[in-house]
Amino acid sequence: MKMNSIEQLKLEHFLSTHVKEMITAIENGEPPLNGVIEEMQEKRLIDMVNEEEHSQIGRMVTKILAPYGYYPLKLPNGKIKTQKLSKSKTIKGQQLFVKSGKAVKKVR
After folding, report:
1. CA 12, 48, 50, 37: dihedral to nearest 10 degrees?
2. Through-space distance between the first and last CA atoms of the chain, rounded to whole angstroms
3. From CA 98, how far away is CA 5, in angstroms rounded?
4. Angle between helices 51-65 and 19-27 (to 10 degrees)
C-alpha cells in the first residue's frame, strides 16, 4: 500500500511525538522503531510496507533523531548497519543508530 501525503504526515507526527521511546530503544542496542512499532501497528499507521515506503520511514526517523545527536551507524565500508525489527509484522529491518553528534534538542 502506498502512503498518501496525509498518511505520511500522520506517521511523521507520531514519530516526532515518540522520540523518547525511540531513543530508549537505541540505548538498548535496538533499532529506534522497536520502541514504537507495536503502537504504530495498533494505530494502523503502517500496513504492508514496500521498499519505497521503507526508505521514507527511515528518512523520517533520521530527520527526527538528528537534532538529538543520533545518526545511523555506518560500517567501515560506508554502508549503514541494519538490524531485524523483532516486534514488527510489516517492516523487516531498520538501520541502527548511535549517539554521535552534538544534540541541539533535549528529550523532555
Report:
1. 40
2. 34
3. 29
4. 90
Instruction: Tell me the C-alpha to C-alpha distance, in Å, between residue 20 and each of 10, 27, 81, 90.
Output: 18, 11, 22, 22
Q: What is the pLDDT of residues 61-77, one digit of tens each?
A: 999 999 999 998 888 88
pTM given for the model: 0.82
Please report where in the chains the cell 514488527 appears, as a residue: 88
Tell me the pLDDT band of 94, cut-offs 50, 70 and 90. confident
